[in-house]
Amino acid sequence: MVEVSALQQFLERALCRRKDRYLDFIARPKSRGKFLEAIYHELEYCFDASRSVKSLPAQILDLPALRYKPPKDFGVPMVTLREAFKSEDESFLAISLDGTSGIFQPETFRDSRLLFHFK
């Protein structure tokens, strides 16, 4: 399942705290709701902000993507990552299909958005 493998790849690189906990949640279908709930409040404090980037190149924004958004959107396909970048929604994670890039939008402020691109 690409929605699980891509998310695993992304979280392995992007998280610095509670990584094992969230990897365990997404590995088990019955626990995926706990991961989605964490997007609201907890997950933003687990990212390694030092690994975030200021912007994503256009070619990265044009990649097909997956969205994770509470309460039930686990790996919903998106045409491109740009769709998430332009979104005004709160509390979501959108990642490229290969798990190398992503956008985390917390529920607080849009200027708190985290962008990631791993080479």
Tell me what you see in this structure.
This protein is α+β, with helices and mostly antiparallel strands and 119 residues long. The protein has one domain. The protein is 35% helix and 23% strand. The protein contains 5 helices and 6 strands, in the order αααβαββαβββ. A 6-stranded antiparallel β-sheet has the order 1-6-5-4-2-3. α2 (19-27) crosses α3. The protein is globular, with a radius of gyration of 13 Å. The two termini are 22 Å apart. The mean pLDDT is 94.
What does the secondary structure layout of this molecule look like, with pairings?
Elements: H1 2-14, H2 19-27, H3 32-41, E1 52-53, H4 58-61, E2 65-69, E3 73-78, H5 81-86, E4 92-96, E5 101-105, E6 114-117
Antiparallel strand pairs: 1-6, 2-3, 2-4, 4-5, 5-6
Concise synopsis of the structure shown:
The chain has 119 residues and is α+β, with helices and mostly antiparallel strands. Helices cover 35% and strands 23% of the residues.
Helix percent reads 25-40%
- The secondary-structure element order is HHHEHEEHEEE
Largest sheet: 6 strands, antiparallel
Mean pLDDT over all positions: 94
Estimate what percentage of residues fall within beta strands: 15-25%
Strand order of the largest sheet: 1-6-5-4-2-3
How big is the Rg?
13 Å
Distance between the termini: 22 Å
Into how many domains do the coordinates divide? 1
Task: Count the beta strands.
Answer: 6
Secondary-structure content class: alpha+beta
User: Residue ranges: pLDDT <50 for 5 or more in a row?
Assistant: none
Total number of helices: 5
**Structural shape:** globular
